[in-house]
């Protein structure tokens, strides 16, 4: 399968074009304790329909090693107390923050939550150094998305002020089906 990957960036907090709040109230909370169980749950619940497979084989220790680095943060979105999405910031490189993972659980897609959550994610990315003493002020925020991600992903990133700075096209072999949050489960 041919996969196109778009690498996007913002180089100033002024690049952010905020989305309107969703119709359903959404709260977004930083998970301040490192929890491989939480991150693996979010990763599979959000990415299972989009071929997020690179971390599926990670051990508990690999998750700890990734998450327990200065500048790495997990933020969880809740709609009426129910987890509805998340984002993971990787600010391990001073001055650069990568929006490493971002997405919604499938039952919340198309309800106006994505633009709002991305707005929150970008505000937190630009303010990351304020939460990590000794970190350099954020100068650049990056993200990448590809043709196997949700159909609205690229448009949402661009609508929030991201600009494409590199595009790559490659051939990749993917499983016949997405792993899904529950492998083999039928969609409603």
TrEMBL record:
CDD domains: NAT_SF
InterPro entries from the UniProt entry: Acyl_CoA_acyltransferase, GNAT_dom
Stretches assigned to coiled coil: none
Pfam families: Acetyltransf_1
The N-acetyltransferase domain, residue ranges: 26-181
Protein name: N-acetyltransferase
The organism of origin for this protein: Amycolatopsis oliviviridis
């Amino acid at each position: 399968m041919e996969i196109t990957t778009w690498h996007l960036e913002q180089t100033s907090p002024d690049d952010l074009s905020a989305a309107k709040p969703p119709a359903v109230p959404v709260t977004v909370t930083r998970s301040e304790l490192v929890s491989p169980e939480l991150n693996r749950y979010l990763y599979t619940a959000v990415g299972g329909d989009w071929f997020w497979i690179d971390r599926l084989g990670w051990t508990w220790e690999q998750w700890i090693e990734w998450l327990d680095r200065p500048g790495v943060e997990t933020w969880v979105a809740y709609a009426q107390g129910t987890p509805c999405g998340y984002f993971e910031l990787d600010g391990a490189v001073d001055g650069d923050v990568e929006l490493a993972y971002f997405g919604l659980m499938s039952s919340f897609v198309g309800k106006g939550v994505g633009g709002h959550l991305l707005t929150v994610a970008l505000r937190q990315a630009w303010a990351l150094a304020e939460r990590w003493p000794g970190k350099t002020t954020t100068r650049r925020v990056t993200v990448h998305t590809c043709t196997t991600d949700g159909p609205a992903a690229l448009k949402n990133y661009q609508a929030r002020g991201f600009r494409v700075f590199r595009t790559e096209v490659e051939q990749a072999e993917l499983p016949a089906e997405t792993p899904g949050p529950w492998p083999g489960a039928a969609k409603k």
